[in-house]
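haha ok so turns out i had the wrong file open the whole time. this is the CORRECT one, sorry everyone. sequence first:
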Amino acid sequence: MKFSEIISNSLILSGINKMNITELTEVQEKVIPLAKNGSDIICQAPTGTGKTLAFALPILEKIKATNKVQAIVIAPTRELANQIATDINKVSCDMLNTKALAVYGGEPIDKQIYNLKKKPQIIVATPGRLIDHLERRTIKLTDVATVVLDEADEMLNMGFIEDIKTILNVCPTPHQTMLFSATISKDIEAIAKEFFSKDAITIRVNTKELTVDLIDQYYIDVKEKDKVEVISRILDINDYKLVMVFCNTKKTVDEVTSGLLMRGFLVEALHGDMRQMQRDRVMARFKAGLINILVASDVAARGLDINNLDVVFNFDVPQDNEYYVHRIGRTGRANKNGLSITLVTRSEKSHLKEIIRYAKCDITQMMIPTVEKVTKYRVKKVIRDALDLTNEDDLVTKYVEKEIAKLDLVDASRLVTGLISLELKEKTDSSSIELISDINDRSDKRSTKMVRIFVNVGKKDKLKVYNLTDLLTKKTDLSNKEIDNVEIHDNFSFFDIPESYKTDLINSDIEYKNIPLKFEVAKDKRKTKTKSKKN
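then structure:
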């Protein structure tokens, strides 16, 4: 279906053409005709489905030539609010005296009050800042005909439910209400029941089609300490132009950014502790290609509209299932193929299985690029970059040539090899042995010598053999077959593991039913008739 079949305003169609959008997405086909008829709509659809135009186009067709606010769009983050306002202004670029304005926290309110005096017809706002303006009477909703709640699930997760109710209560009656969310929770159903008409229409977009057909999804088994090296290897052997790496915490964002910077990548961080000016600068550099890797937290990246993203890395398995859909939805947009790679530790395996069931998708295992393959690519890159810097008039070049002339051919070859080795060493984590032994093979090189371990929980704590083995396999790198001769006593337990795991386990921070576990090497191996894994 073409836009001209459901949009009658030629000025809006002109704006769509300037954005080089030719075909409607599924959510646009379903929402726009109903929205134009004034229906209240509840739409469940993930990020990257074209939701903004789905509600923006009907709003623009109904805009009247007045200086009153006629529509408000409420979004969870300043980034999303900015992006929605930008998209609306792009579509309405040929419509005189029609403008959308974003208002949000983290920016001086005086600046927003000045821009509000220019009489925008559409306000895109975060809940808290919109309430500030309503209390100051710098925004009036008396002429509002349409209210949109975008990313409603995220707003509720961030604690904005009371703010949303406050805003909806002061909106004039009647008005059209549209809600867009990745999931439909009980809280969302409660809001719909209280504030939507009885004839509200629910629309669902096929999540499976989005995550499976357009995005190639992979996971990699990896230790936590090897994650940065694994991402580096993949980046080294692929010519990706734009990359996003998602982390669960701000601290991890900073650590990953630092690790990739040390390896020579053009990378910057984006998280909630940064000021808005910093975040805007980072995004401008990313979109301009001055950096090609963006490491971000989920909240900071919410609403970012980035086209032509080559790959999304999940450095951590996302804490909420819907975040996975949001993250990978950054790639594979506009009917283009995308790629996502999730790094999974042993303790995250069960959560990954939950995500697969939730998203109804296939996530295929990917092997870590071998050390030989990565070294080959890294050497080629160093040589290529060195040749690109060659300049006959450069003072450094002149002195290098003089020194090289003093060497014979063998010495020159050794010199080049040594310089390349130094360069590679600087860009590799010196605390890691990844360039010497291959990550993929390390699990087979474990010591087979076994050691007896004591742990301070037993029958009185309702500990069973399967409880202990399940806890160890989830919280450590031990596999089930590496845990043997488990004995459960009243107040403590024993088990055998390969000696190479001993130090990591003793230093681990693991709890069982809120009891901190204390692991020690047993003084002697006791034989009893208690429950044993072998039995």
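Residues 446-521 form a domain with the Alpha-Beta Plaits fold (CATH 3.30.70.330).
again sry for the mixup
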